[in-house]
Amino acid sequence: MSVCVNESTKVVVQGITGKEGNFHAFQCKQYGTQVVAGVTPGKEGEEVAGIPVFDTVQKAAKETEANTSLIFVPPSFAMDSVLEAIDAGIKTIVCITEGIPIMDMIKVRTVVKAEGVTFIGPNTPGIITAGEAKLGIMPGFIFKKGSVGIMSRSGTLLYEVADQVTKSGLGESTALGIGGDPIIGTDYIYWVKLFEEDPQTKAIFIIGEIGGMMEEQTAEFIQSNIKKPVFAFISGRTAPPGKRMGHAGAIIMGGKGGAETKIKALRKAGVTVIENITEVGKTMKEKMSKG
Amino acid sequence: MSVCVNESTKVVVQGITGKEGNFHAFQCKQYGTQVVAGVTPGKEGEEVAGIPVFDTVQKAAKETEANTSLIFVPPSFAMDSVLEAIDAGIKTIVCITEGIPIMDMIKVRTVVKAEGVTFIGPNTPGIITAGEAKLGIMPGFIFKKGSVGIMSRSGTLLYEVADQVTKSGLGESTALGIGGDPIIGTDYIYWVKLFEEDPQTKAIFIIGEIGGMMEEQTAEFIQSNIKKPVFAFISGRTAPPGKRMGHAGAIIMGGKGGAETKIKALRKAGVTVIENITEVGKTMKEKMSKG
Amino acid sequence: MIRLHEYQAKRIFLSYGISVPTGYVAFSPDDAWKIALELGPPVVLKAQIHAGGRGLAGGVKIAKTADEAKEVASQILGKKLVTAQTGSQGIVVKRLLVEEAVNIDREIYFSIIVDRKTCKPAIIASPAGGMAIEEIAKNHPEQIITEPIEPIVGIMPYQIRRLSDFLGFDNNNKEAAHIFTTLYKIFVEKDCRLIETNPLVLCKNGSLMAIDAKMSIDEDALFRQKDMARLWDITQSDPSELEAQKYKLSFVRLNGNIGCMVNGAGLSMATMDLIKMHGGEPANFLDVGGKATPETIAKGFEIILNDPSVRAILVNIFGGIVRCDRVADGIIKAVQQVNVNVPVAIRLAGTNREEAISILKKAPFKFSVMDDLNEAAKEVVKLAKSA
Amino acid sequence: MIRLHEYQAKRIFLSYGISVPTGYVAFSPDDAWKIALELGPPVVLKAQIHAGGRGLAGGVKIAKTADEAKEVASQILGKKLVTAQTGSQGIVVKRLLVEEAVNIDREIYFSIIVDRKTCKPAIIASPAGGMAIEEIAKNHPEQIITEPIEPIVGIMPYQIRRLSDFLGFDNNNKEAAHIFTTLYKIFVEKDCRLIETNPLVLCKNGSLMAIDAKMSIDEDALFRQKDMARLWDITQSDPSELEAQKYKLSFVRLNGNIGCMVNGAGLSMATMDLIKMHGGEPANFLDVGGKATPETIAKGFEIILNDPSVRAILVNIFGGIVRCDRVADGIIKAVQQVNVNVPVAIRLAGTNREEAISILKKAPFKFSVMDDLNEAAKEVVKLAKSA
To answer: Does residue D376 sit in the same domain as residue D253?
Structure first.
């Protein structure tokens, strides 16, 4: 078992003929993911890494039974691509694109919720079920089939944590970036629920950061709904207010969204918060072998 | 058991100081429904039939724990009232109002779906769980606690059918009008599912009419998902194309939405379609006593 | 739905930047002559009535000279036009649209409706323009594309690409994209139930032009569409239907001889179906609604009896909020005010049925009052046949 | 986010029909004198910088005569203004807004932001205007209302009633309703991240006026907001941050002495946190991103070393798609091009780590290369202290 994506997931890559889309479609396929189609308007009939390219998602889905989309298009085309995927009946969308206008994402989120679509991102490294399917730009080799479900607002922090979790021997069930933007498709709570239900997952790891109130809301949810052990790391304790720290979402505004209140809320909910990023593997190994 | 509303439902009536709202709030309360609050902006502090009136739904919900709204406001204010109810955390909305602009309902429906609200109507007589709660304008005395779940696009046809079902001795679990407009909040399929799950409901009755494709879609759904016996009556076999028969939704357009194709689709799905409206009680009694 | 005339819809199209042929409305043959002179013949003369199918019915003509335009106008104006959509009685033509003739290369069908399946506005389009959409649907269903629009974002680029591709436009045809998005804008801003241009034509010079234009406005939105309300030409509607509307009665004229008066649209239709089932033919649909008063009931009788073909009347009331005794009062009032010269069968059920029956029994007029709807329907069919 | 100047935001407000005081931008004391004469004193002179808190810092002055306006302008223009929001280095004032003085009856706070909780635009408002919202939130949280807007329908009447009620306006105050809906319109149409007017004032004459105006534009939407992009006054930004942007590096200047270069925003922050944990102070945030090339790495070094307080640098790369050997190439390139005059600790993990280490070992510059991030952080803190 795993969460959301697995070996039977059939992927269409939107923006496959672009530099990024091209490179990563190939990487995902190499990992073993069923990348069955690509889409770039006007490029139907071409092939990228042996993957057939179509003009529209509708056609791609019809011809290849693709049920999941991985989006690499430039930000000004992203809303169009997402709505095209939804229109074609795609029920899971992973949107790698960074820099989508926030008003576009506000609208997309309303449609996504009304249509019951699972939307990961934007500005995400993607999602991976170790050993089964990789939909994204993460280096596959650091993940190994195991028992920890990981979610993160940051890409490289996801890699850093997964690397330590893998080296600790625990390994991952499914790991994903939920997205580094202020408005994202699915939040921690959405995934915490799925990890709680997934029999393969024995522990949950939340990688949070400054900005917004999502970690606090998740803590509240965990307290009354989650029985599995939850671990967390929050970055940005040294970040000054009002400054955007790389991610559009990583910004302390109006005195809200600082790291300390997030850590406090998570601890209150019984979450093991690790303060030193280099001690993730060690701490998890200790706690999980005891439990 | 029953569906959606019962004796613990707490109702706020929006537009309670209007003629209709006033009259029916009292009628609903008389029936035994917990009508705990009314809302009319600017009338806070007044009382209608012993029901306290508030300026806003937010305040009404806070003070009285109302969880369901019954809307009687004029059509040009309806969208505002619905969104105010959703904003106040109301999760079930019954909108009696007839004549809401269709573009307003298109927007409302998107919000309702995104927010996970149950919306009945508009242009509906309401919903009743016999002997427990009446939220609407139907005459309560024709309903009697029993085993048939009824849903209808028409008000008086609902009464006609319920009257016969009651007199047949079967009685009703929950009965409702889903609304006579082209765009409504919840369709037959939504309710058929709930009736299928409800242990009190032993049989389902669908009252359909010309216009749209909802009966056909429902037939398809019933075929593969519903095990309980389903009965139906479709009105409008004599209606000419292109003419609106009272309800905004009852119109055969572009050759679609005629009664015959609906009857055919329902029969194909194993539904017992009654052709003579006066034989509803007799037919149901026969079929249900056999089964 | 409130229909606009073609010339009204075209004026709106034009104001949003969509090309339409140059033309003006003519109320007389003289008008037509002057307009034809100004435009320079040949011109097209199009009868302005609230019904489609004008071309086949002789409502659209070409005139090669101004004199011919005057001649054609005098043949059409003031005459009844019977098309596939008017019913057999037809509609009198009171206005003509006189337009420049256009060199057509290709005809396209394009419309926006409210799609009841997706609960969103939807574009319906076809490269097989010029025909009625029902005809295309029947003969070339594969030539129709349906494109539902998410109202929160409007028409998306992928939809413009798909439409352009389907309709045979170059994907970079900016004018086509402009027409798609502009018609949607009109649809939303004017609270339309239907907007249609058939044909939308590709002219010989490569530009796009709306040769025909239809708009229907959501009557429920007229409170905020005052400009549209003003455009409504009520002379195009059945006078009885208009009269009924004034009293909040919902009335539709039909071709039979049994008048129907029922409370509720669904029950009205079911009652008509029952009459038909017993071999009768309803003369009308009449829903007196949930707020019937003695006055509106009396008005209902008057409207039904305006139709000389009515031979008998069936009243079917399920008393809920509408109390049967008040309906009975209305019926008494009607026979006092109106000359009810046909037999009346009445079925009453529900609230205050007994009181109603005793009121009706006391009346100087003899009604057939029944408990059973099936019997009442049979009775009225018998009455109509023997009348 | 791209901030606009107050005078720019006010021009946009005005173009949408929102009242603002009459006023013009002045680049010199002479300008201020002329404008004051035209407006007729008294006038208000407001320093135009991209930071709040100007009033307390002496950036807003009243002048009773044109001569006084000139005098005040010469005192402010060209000087550094240090406010609670500028940081200790302050910002040089290059423009003034000279405005008519307004008779104020009551001050209101009104803003629209993107609410991350509801994922919708939201109005934040308070009757306690004139103060910073953070201050109101701290001292009078009950005086703040948050009103999320459904983008598909916009501000609804019930929200206008609630806002009017909360802010102490009559429910029929059409001007207030107009300002609420118009500011939301600007927010959506201009792709704002923030729109704020503090105070929005009720004047003695009963009308409403935006006395202050702030707008920040979503930088991700600049491709479709060309007009807004043109308004961006880049002289208000840190030159190093601007330089970094050119190379798609994400850089934020901080107050410490340890330069940081990391791939990924989250890992960058975690690395800074780790330095702090070991007693050091980061001099900057620098994310080289997922597409780092030797050129951008070299540029990163240059930008870090522009800060004279930097005593040591920590490079932390988790090689995934970014290969460690390419980062190593960049580092070599940097030490060749730039005078790297501080010690550099490097932690490399992931793809092609071994190759990278051997490249670095061959370099003429001595790096402290470590496997363990914790050790690397400790090392760089030690290096900075001993430097």
So the answer is: yes
C152 CB near a chain D CB, below 8 Å?
yes
Rg (CA), chain D: 25
Average pLDDT rounded to a whole number, residues B65-75: 97
Strands B230-235 vs B272-273: parallel, antiparallel or unpaired: parallel
Tell me: pLDDT of A291 over 70: no
Compute the distance between CA of residue A166 and CA of residue C9 in angstroms, rounded to an integer: 68
Q: Residue C337's pLDDT is what? A: 87
User: Which residues does C contribute to its contact with A (CB < 8 Å)?
Assistant: 150, 152-153, 156-159, 161-162, 165, 171
Bridge partners of residue A233, in order along the sequence: A207
| Structure tokens, B97 | 């109002």
pLDDT number for residue B291: 57
- D152 in reach of chain C (CB within 8 A): yes
Query: Helices in D168-213 by DSSP H: which ranges?
Result: 174-189
C122/C141 same-domain check:
yes
- Give tens-digit pLDDT for C82-111: 888 777 778 899 999 999 999 999 999 999
My answer on whether D2 and D130 are in the same domain is yes
* Residues paired with A239 in a beta bridge: none
Mean pLDDT value across residues D151-165: 96
Q: Residue D152's closest chain C neighbor by CA? A: C152
Q: Provide the number of structural domains found in chain C.
A: 3
- B-proximal residues of A, 105-164, CB under 8 Å: 110-111, 113-115
The model's pTM is 0.94
Q: Which domain holds residue C371?
A: 239-386
What is the token pair recorded at C314? 């069936």
Instruction: Please tell me the distance from the alpha carbon of residue A146 to that of residue A172, in angstroms, as a whole number.
Output: 4
- C140 with C214, same domain: the answer is yes
pLDDT digits (tens, 9 = 90+) for A93-118: 999 999 999 999 999 999 999 999 99
Hey, what domains does chain B have and what are their CATH numbers?
10-120 (3.40.50.720), 138-289 (3.40.50.261)
D259 and D163 fall within a common domain: no
Q: Are residues D194 and D119 in the same domain?
A: yes
Last residue of a domain, one of D191, D210, D237: D237
D382 and D321 within one domain: yes
Do D203 and D110 fall within a single domain? yes
pLDDT above 80: residue C34: yes
Q: Which of C217, C237, C257 is the last residue of a domain?
A: C237
Strand arrangement of the beta sheet that strand D344-350 belongs to: D250-253, D284-287, D258-262, D312-319, D344-350, D368-370
Confirm or reject contact between A81 and chain C (CB < 8 A): yes
- Give CA–CA dist D163/D147, Å, rounded: 8
CATH number of the domain residue D154 falls in: 3.30.470.20
Mutate which of D118, D145, D153, D159 to test chain B, going by most B C-beta atoms within 10 A? Answer: D153
A248 in contact with D at a CB cutoff of 8 Å? yes
A182: nearest CA partner in chain D: D116
**CA C359 – CA C363 distance, rounded (Å):** 7
Reported ipTM: 0.93
Question: Do residue D158 and residue B84 have CB atoms under 8 angstroms apart?
Answer: yes
Count chain A–chain B contacts defined by CB atoms under 8 A.
11
> From D151, which residue of chain C is nearest by alpha-carbon distance?
C152
**Rounded to an integer, what distance in angstroms lies between the CA atom of residue A161 and that of residue A69?**
26
Chain mean position to CA D338: 29
Q: Which two tokens stand for residue A131?
A: 């050993």
Interchain proximity A80–C157, CB inside 8 Å: yes
Q: How confident is the model at residue D350 (pLDDT cuts 50, 70, 90)?
A: confident
Q: Which chains touch A (3 or more CB pairs under 8 A)?
A: B, C, D
Among all chains, which residue has been given the structure tokens 């800074």? D272
Chain D residues whose C-beta is within 8 A of a chain B C-beta are 150, 152-153, 156-159, 161-162, 165, 171
Length of chain D: 387
- D372: domain CATH number? 3.40.50.261
